[in-house]
């Protein structure tokens, strides 16, 4: 966590994305929701498909964003909770079972640790590791639907857990980039799970909902049900693909293609108006008029591809329910006009854009779906800090990263 800010505590979310690094600083006081006091944003080109490929470049972007956030908040940032993405991410649900250890059969926190350790036993190649193990539901002597078994009496404790795994090398390169910027990694969170914290309602998570964060380089998907994650996956396609399609289709350089997309783009030809815009000819001599429908015609196939990849993942997840919460989009590409309507038509589900909102303080500076992950990170960090205060009366001293992460997850879900 960041250094003490007067008598209060600050928490910092560091979202390392394919197009930008975002740092959100929030203040927490007395177990309350975090209150936003600062933001820093810097362009980043050190990632490919959500994974750090340029440590030096990424750490420069982190430094720039951190310095901006420090100036705005007045907090010296020394550590942060960091987002993880990339197509190396995979997930599964697994079960674990243990015998309750106390002679009087009262279930303790220790039994919960042991049963989660039992669920953690999965086949992993040596180059991969467990990023999250999130209890979805406990079962005590065959009675399911138990959210918190501590204090209950029973002989046999079972858990169903959502397990997210990641390539160790990708995690290490991410942590190196953060370390090189002089920041201690306080915790790692899968990007879509952080975004889900910021934009989903408890009812959506309970009923069944698909969170889809479409940024520049990746589409991060998490399906929630009964309040917890059920399926998580990252697809290496994002808004940058739309931009490069426009660059190729209209024969313009990438920065101009990006500008055209953001100012005039819509998701489907049927949604484009009859207007047009002027572009220089590729030869550099003279100009041409490009109808908005032509631009939309370039964007539409890529958006359709994204939606069909989403449909494929929903199918692959083998989710048995009907997803009454539908699809909630976030990430910068959620700003594309018509994306929600097109997706609703193609998937026959309710679709909305999730705005990270509802926090106290300077909430308006993090408005917009592109800040969902960064805001979710400070919400998760804030809750973890509050839980630590409640448990010990003071902030716990840093233990090993992984054991702290484990404690967090047990506190949060
Ligand atoms: N109005 C808009 N219409 C279409 N696309 C937009 C719009 N506004 C922003 N975008 C796109 O959003 C993308 C950036 O989103 P975001 O900031 O969520 O990405 P990121 O977090 O850096 O990347 P990732 O999460 O994929 O690693 C860019 O491709 C940008 O072009
Ligand atoms: Mg992102």
Summarize the structure.
With about 425 residues, this protein is of the alpha/beta class. It has helices spanning about 55-75, 110-120, 170-180, 190-200, 200-205, 240-250, 255-265, 290-315, 340-345, 370-390, 400-410; strands spanning about 10-15, 20-30, 35-45, 45-50, 50, 80-85, 90-100, 130-140, 145, 155-165, 185-190, 210-215, 220-225, 230-235, 275-280, 285-290, 325-330, 350-355, 360. Among the domains are: about 10-85 and about 170-200 and about 355-410, ATPase, nucleotide binding domain (Nucleotidyltransferase, domain 5, 2-Layer Sandwich), CATH 3.30.420.40; about 90-165, Dna Ligase, domain 1.
Please explain how this structure is put together.
This protein has 413 residues and is an alpha/beta fold. Among the domains are: 9-87 and 168-199 and 355-412, 2-Layer Sandwich (Nucleotidyltransferase, domain 5); 90-166, Dna Ligase, domain 1. The chain is 36% helix and 30% strand. The protein is built from 11 helices and 19 strands. The protein has a 6-stranded mixed β-sheet, sandwiched between helices. Strands 14-13-12-17-18 form a 5-stranded mixed β-sheet, sandwiched between helices. Strands 7-10-8-9 form a 4-stranded antiparallel β-sheet. Helix 8 (292-316) packs across helix 9 (339-347). The chain is globular. It starts with 8 loop residues before the first strand and ends with a helix. The model is unreliable at 393-404 (pLDDT under 50). The structure holds adenosine-5'-triphosphate and magnesium ion. The site of magnesium ion has 6 residues, from loops.
